[in-house]
Amino acid sequence: MASITKDDELCSFDVPETTRHSGGHTLYKIILQVTPKELTQNSYQLVYWKRYTDIRKLYDVLSRYHQAVYRPGKFPDFPEKSRFMERFDPVIVEERRVATKKFLNYVLQHLYLRTHEAYINFFQKGDKVLLPDVETVPLQPQVINSQSEVINNTNSITTLPTSTNESIIEPEKDEILLTTDENEQIENVTNTCAQILEDLNDLQFEQQKEINKEQEEFNLIKQEVDEVANLLSLPLATTTKNNNSP
Question: Which of 114, 125, 192, 209 has the greatest CB tally within 10 Å of its CB?
């Protein structure tokens, strides 16, 4: 249903204009702007014309529901009910238009409000208007100067005079010149290798520490076993000695 926004759509309400109905009441133009997040889909609008009395009823229902469910946050204010003869006052109409836009966008941001039955019924029927695609200027290929232009540009460069005491060092043909990006890449690789070696050393130290700890525990257990064995051998030696005595 178009009135319930989806996770893959960006939506917002606007109330751009009002009009006087022949029946003696004011109609408010409500536009729901829907922009799909997928670039392959076009944006569109849902247009509704609503009486202020119907908008006010929706406001009262959702406001009471907001209070009943004890949701945090302050519900938007709405203009006080004006007298019958003031309903066409431009100031009153503008105040209602601004309040309606603020109220509907607040509802749109809260799932428990925009899924309420009163909200869904309010936006049952609307005129869908597809928006045209945004025209983009295609990228133009870069023009590469021809060889003749390069030669002309080279010939047009004036040679600055240099001192006879200064010598110009030209790089050898086989010399490798490193750019700034390449130097940064080499530095990053060097730092990464150093970090890996440091981590390996830490791991080796921790492993050796565990081995030493296990060795100490083994020695303690062996010592306790030897002590118990010695204690058990003492009565046996005493009995043998007594049996051998005349």
Answer: 114
Phi and psi dihedrals of 25, rounded to 5? -140, 165
User: How far is it, in rounded angstroms, from Cα 58 to Cα 99?
Assistant: 13
Q: Which two tokens stand for residue 101?
A: 């836009």
Pairwise CA distance, residues 152 & 20, whole Å: 73
Number of H helices, E strands in the chain: 6, 4
Backbone torsion region of residue 70, taken as left when φ is above 0, otherwise alpha when ψ lies between -120 and 50, otherwise beta: left
Is 80 exceeded by the pLDDT of residue 92? yes
In 3D space, the residue among 18, 6, 8 whose CA is nearest the CA of residue 50 turns out to be: 18
First vs last C-alpha separation in the chain: 112
Considering only CA atoms, give the Rg of the chain: 43
Per-residue pLDDT tens over the stretch 162-195 = 544 555 555 555 445 556 667 777 777 776 676 6
Q: If you average pLDDT over every residue of the chain, what do you get?
A: 78
